[in-house]
Amino acid sequence: MNYKATIDIPAVGLHKEDTNISIGREGLGYGSGSIDFADVALLSPINHRIYLTLMDGSRAEISMLGFSFDGFWEELVQCFGVRTAEALFIEEEKLMDCEGEYSLPTDSPTERENGRGRVQLFTDAVCVLPASSHAVRIPLVFTEDISLDGYLLTIRMRTKEVYKVGKMGYDTQPFAERCMKQAKLMKQKRMAQLQAIDLQGIFTEKGLFRTRQEGEYWLSAYGQDCCAVELFTGENTATYLYRFPDRKLFTFRLEEAMEAVGSYREIIFLPEEKLQENPLYRMAVHRSAAVRFLRSCSAGRIIHTASHEEKLKEFLG
Predict the structure, then answer these.
(1) The Cα angle at residue 72 between residues 69 and 76, in degrees rounded to 5
(2) What is the pLDDT of residues 139-156, one digit of tens each?
(3) Structure confidence at residue 113 (pLDDT)
(4) Which of the residues in the chain have pLDDT under 70?
(5) Which pLDDT belongs to residue 106?
(6) Quick one: pLDDT at residue 241?
(7) pLDDT score, position 132
(8) Terminus-to-terminus CA distance in the chain, angstroms?
(9) Radius of gyration of the chain from Cα atoms?
(10) pLDDT tens, position by position, 252-264
(11) Element (H, E) at 81
């Protein structure tokens, strides 16, 4: 739908311009310009104006919407949420979709994001879709504890992050019960799937992607503060190399990153310049701390040639 409004984006030299604004699947369009949702850090409605805080810290202001203000805001948040869900690569069955409060960890150990937004339960995860770039998919298979205290559900991860969702009205109790049930089922399913995978050669650890395609998995081998990961997907591939200061943390993050990317494995190793060319991938990396961590540990790769095994052993020491 098109809306008549005034837009102000000082960072691009646009000042109080009256124009038609459209909200699409990937972002906003105005006049001859556009704002991709991948570049949006926060959406805020303040005094009948809507502010878009962008990733570079600048802001866009949309005003003079008149009676269309509520409809514009509702459509904007909805489309932003749909695009965010795409960036989380959500393909599983949705069990519950609620509006509730949330409290999420951020990149800062002393700060959390609190607010109200969509809280969804899927067969394998809890997803929180706020009007910000801090949306998260919480994989139930990696939870350490899930407990309901009053109207808030606390989800503790094995890496010690704590997520809180709740105050969903009559949906709170059913959401909590189904969440706990699915966590148990997913852990049992994951264990059975891993038992069916055989280790090969030098590799000592094994794991799964989040994919409906059977027979796709990964194996890893460790050296001193380093790791080699082989993807078994039926595609032409390579062995990916990593260096890290803490093996336990790296192993957890490796498993979580593979879980996060699903079938979009290229974002694990895509060069930064190529990543920047794909808005959906940029959104995906920004919303997964595990993927960012894994990418930060990258130490190159070994192509499958005659010298592959020799180079691999040399890297692992």
Answers:
(1) 140
(2) 999 999 999 999 999 999
(3) 94
(4) 236
(5) 87
(6) 97
(7) 96
(8) 60
(9) 22
(10) 999 999 999 988 9
(11) helix 69-87
pLDDT the model gives residue 139: 96
105 within 8 A of 161, measured Cβ to Cβ: yes
User: Contact at 8 Å (CB) between 316 and 73?
Assistant: no
Strand bridging mode 49-54 / 112-122: unpaired
CA gap 205, 221 in Å, rounded: 6
Question: What one-character DSSP code corresponds to residue 38?
Answer: G
- The SS3 assignment for 197 reads coil
Nearest partner of 228 among 261, 249, 250, judged by Cα: 250
Rounded CA separation 86/95 (Å) = 17
Comparing C-alpha atoms, which of 215, 153, 214, 220 is closest to residue 183?
Answer: 153
What residues have CB less than 8 Å from 249, skipping those under 6 apart?
159
- Give me the residues paired with residue 199 across strands: none
Q: What pLDDT is stored for residue 12 in this prediction?
A: 84
For residue 254 the two structure tokens come to: 């490796």
Within 8 A by CB and 6+ apart from 296, the residues are none
- If one counts every other C-beta atom within 10 angstroms of the C-beta of residue 84, the result is 28
The set of residues, in sequence order, having a beta carbon less than 8 Å from that of 86 and lying 6+ positions away, is: 280, 283
pTM: 0.92
